[in-house]
Write a structure and sequence with these properties.
24% of the residues lie in helices and 28% in strands. The chain is α+β, with helices and mostly antiparallel strands. The strands form 3 sheets. Strands 9, 10, 11, 12, 13, 14, 15, 16 and 17 form a 9-stranded antiparallel beta sheet that branches. A 4-stranded parallel beta sheet has the order 3-2-1-4, sandwiched between helices. Strands 5-8-6-7 form a 4-stranded antiparallel beta sheet, with helices on one face. Helix 1 packs across helix 10. The mean pLDDT is 96. It binds adenosine monophosphate.
Length: 351
């Protein structure tokens, strides 16, 4: 168990790191962030910031020295430099390695009995044509690495589109388009002793590949599939000997939950847990990586909606507070660029 006053290192400087650091501070820990980015919004609530490149071995070693435990908030952190952190890195790097490549991730989850959308690797135009021939269209061409919030993705409506689309220079994957009833995620926390807890699964609605809202209660199409999805998530967490918060995203379909992707971290579809659950995803991640017992994850209101504030929506965020049931979270980002997550609101509904 990490003593109060201990230092937690956070790799990445975005909003997830910011909300982790706020939860950690409440429990008497201090956080320091490591990020090569210009804007490090986690830095506003951290005791110190290492503004270094990921492959700066000296800086990474010094960061490890300065921390009692190190975690990440960004899953595209390159894995090789993290060897300098040794056992201080929690969760372990295998979870990152698995999630950084869509192909590895799908094979790994399939090996545990999960069902992803039909897929094929694409490294050339002829691969793409073959993939569409086998899997059919519509479908989505996705880069295997570095993708998030719908970035690095191209929709393909018909075999004809394959002629026009530019093939990414990095390895890619073609996925058949899933006809789903709803999207949902399973978010769990696993403690150092293997104990696991789950939050309720929200109904997630995406716009342009990015999460727009998460809502409770979720429709039956989701709740009927949660148990099966949780069983898969449980196996993934055990197989990775994972410690911390882990997210798996699913499509609810007429043939059961189809695995979309995993995020080895706290997740946007779990932001509602700050006000809406007895213990938030951020608090439980800190508890898990510090070797503390996990908190109760139960939902505290019968209804809830979490809404992302994206791009220009952030120009008048305080207007959302005219509804007294709404809580506002702004991430401190300077420029409200299109498609940029600037904050979110959570509205609890007690009747
Ligand atoms: P991803 O980054 O892979 O999670 O994709 C972002 C969003 O795009 C998903 O949450 C879905 O709304 C949509 N999407 C991605 N892949 C598929 C698919 N194979 N079939 C249908 N919709 C998809």
């Amino acid at each position: 168990m990490l003593k109060p006053g201990s230092t937690i290192g956070i790799l990445g400087g975005g909003q997830l790191g910011r909300m982790l650091a706020i939860a950690a501070a409440q429990m008497g820990y201090r956080c320091i962030a490591y990020s090569p980015e210009k804007e490090i919004v986690a830095g506003d609530v951290c005791a110190d910031v290492f503004r270094n490149k990921w492959d700066d071995a000296q800086a990474m070693a010094a960061f490890g020295q300065a921390c009692d435990v190190v975690t990440w908030e960004f899953e595209n952190v390159p894995v090789a430099p993290l060897a300098a952190l040794g056992e201080k890195l929690v969760p372990n790097a295998r979870a990152l390695e698995t999630a950084q490549d869509r192909l590895n991730e799908k094979r790994f989850v399939e090996g545990l009995g999960g069902q992803p959308a039909p897929y094929a690797t694409v490294d050339s135009r002829s691969d793409l044509i073959e993939a569409i021939d086998r899997i059919g269209a519509p479908g989505i061409l996705k880069t295997r690495g570095e993708g998030y919030d719908g970035k690095g993705q191209w929709r393909i409506q018909s075999a004809h589109d394959a002629e026009g689309v530019s093939i990414p220079s990095t390895p890619a994957i073609y996925e058949g388009f899933v006809t789903f009833e709803a999207e949902f995620s399973v978010i769990l926390a696993r403690g150092a002793d293997g104990e696991m807890v789950f939050w309720d699964s929200t109904h997630n609605i995406h716009e342009g590949g990015m999460l727009a809202t998460s809502t409770l209660p979720a429709p039956d199409s989701v709740t009927m599939q949660v148990e099966k999805a949780r069983n898969l998530a449980r196996q993934v967490a055990d197989a990775l000997n994972y410690v911390g918060v882990l997210t798996l995203e699913f499509f609810a379909t007429s043939s059961g939950p189809v695995f979309n992707e995993m995020a080895p971290r706290v997740h946007n579809s779990g932001h509602w847990t700050i006000e809406g659950a007895a213990t938030s995803q951020f608090t439980n991640h800190i508890r898990a990586i510090c070797g503390l017992p996990l908190g109760d994850t139960r939902t505290i209101a019968p209804g809830m909606v979490m809404r992302n504030i994206v791009g220009k929506d952030a120009n008048t965020p305080h207007e959302t507070l005219s509804d007294p049931a709404t809580q506002l979270h702004l991430y401190g980002k300077a420029r409200a660029l299109d498609g940029r997550k600037m904050g979110h609101t959570t509205t609890l509904k007690f009747d």
